[in-house]
């Protein structure tokens, strides 16, 4: 009887301690995912997918919060992880071409070096990394300069989204009044 009482007390204490788990606070820059084709997972479960899954990008979405973004928060000519927190990752579900370079199906990290008139986009083989602190240029797959476009209205939240193009898709990357489009051929 004594043994059963001790076992019941131990089980009760373990359940009480499990209920006191401290969860981390909500991140200020939430994680987001964009697919090509847009909305692919929902289309798939609704049996409405008419195109195969080509790519997805996983990134964190910082906010402007009254700050000057390009040239101040993000210095021109300095490497950026394209978002906040973890370095942005792009996954291709089939072989594609970026800037004429064949990119094999797989996961990659996407970085950029922003300038006033262009961004140098960088596809790198190192994945599962935080920020750009351990960036290793020897693992670059390709670099491509793409022109900067000005948005008519500032965007509060950083955003990445795929748009269909004549020979594949463009990955639109925009924040504040700045936008670039990375061409992906498939």
Counting DSSP E segments of at least 2 residues, the number of strands comes to 10
Order of helices and strands: HEHEEEEEEEEE
Q: List the uncertain runs.
A: 7-13
Share of residues in helices? 10-25%
The proportion of residues in beta strands is 35-45%
* Global mean pLDDT: 91
Global shape = globular
List the SSEs and their pairings:
Layout: H1 2-18, E1 31-36, H2 40-45, E2 55-60, E3 89-92, E4 96-98, E5 101-103, E6 106-114, E7 118-124, E8 140-147, E9 149-165, E10 168-185
Antiparallel strand pairs: 1-2, 2-3, 3-6, 4-5, 6-7, 7-8, 9-10
Provide a brief overview of the structure.
This protein has 186 residues and is mainly β.
What does this structure look like?
- This protein has 186 residues and is mainly beta.
- 12% of the residues lie in helices and 44% in strands.
- It has one domain.
- The protein contains two helices and ten strands.
- The strands form three sheets. It has a six-stranded antiparallel β-sheet, with no helix packed on it. Strands 4-5 form a two-stranded antiparallel ribbon.
- The protein is globular.
